[in-house]
Design the sequence.
């Protein structure tokens, strides 16, 4: 079983998708801790309900990014996690942290990367007039939203979409894509080569 720490900052619907898939028989990963940088968010309730250990490392209690991340590392280290999944975690991590977790730190982003990095992603997509958008699960590297892509799912962009409508459609895809990516990683089938991944075929 691959031990996973999930980092959150908010409602935690992607966390829920990961909790649900980990609860399935024979799923090769387990969530050992959920850590939030924001107190009292719904994601923490979801974790507690599933019987998963939680902690809050509130960035506001630390004088700088470094000391915040040191505490984050302690919380992750204490859990024994081997993989860290960011699920709506709204803090930029330093290069030091990212490099320490190289190829073991995963994020989900609500666009088809490398299009529409950063924030206001759905507004960017609508502005560009794309006819499809979607989500991307990728390894985190120091450059924002740029690491090796593990899995993507597309959704149509409809004529009368606003950002909320598009976000909702993409979120449903996220809830399929993140669990599937976690499965591939936990099965040891994701090989990073340069800035790409190769997904190895499952053994029969
Ligand atoms: C998702 O859209 C995710 O792609 C982005 O932040 C949102 C988090 O939503 N990084 P939730 O907290 O998982 O519901």
Sequence:
């Amino acid at each position: 079983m691959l031990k996973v720490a999930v980092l959150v900052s908010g409602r935690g619907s992607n966390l829920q998708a990961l909790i649900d898939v980990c609860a399935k028989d024979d799923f090769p990963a387990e969530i050992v801790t959920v850590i939030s940088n924001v107190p009292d968010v719904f994601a923490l309730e979801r974790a507690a309900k599933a019987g998963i250990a939680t902690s809050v490392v509130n960035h506001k209690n630390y004088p700088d990014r470094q000391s915040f991340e040191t505490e984050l590392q302690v919380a992750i280290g204490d859990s024994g996690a081997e993989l860290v999944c960011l699920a709506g975690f709204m803090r930029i991590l330093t290069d030091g942290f990212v490099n320490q977790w190289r190829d073991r730190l995963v994020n989900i982003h609500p666009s088809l990367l490398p299009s529409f990095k950063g924030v206001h992603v759905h507004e960017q997509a609508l502005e560009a007039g794309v006819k499809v958008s979607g989500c991307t699960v990728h390894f985190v590297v120091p450059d924002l939203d740029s690491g090796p892509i593990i899995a993507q799912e597309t959704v149509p962009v409809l004529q009368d979409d606003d950002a909320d409508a598009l976000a909702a459609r993409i979120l449903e895809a996220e809830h399929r894509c993140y669990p599937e990516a976690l499965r591939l990683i936990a099965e040891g089938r994701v090989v990073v080569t340069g800035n790409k991944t190769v997904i190895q075929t499952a053994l029969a």
About this structure: The mean pLDDT is 97. The chain has two domains: 1-101, 108-204. Residues 108-204 form a domain with the Rossmann fold fold (CATH 3.40.50.170).
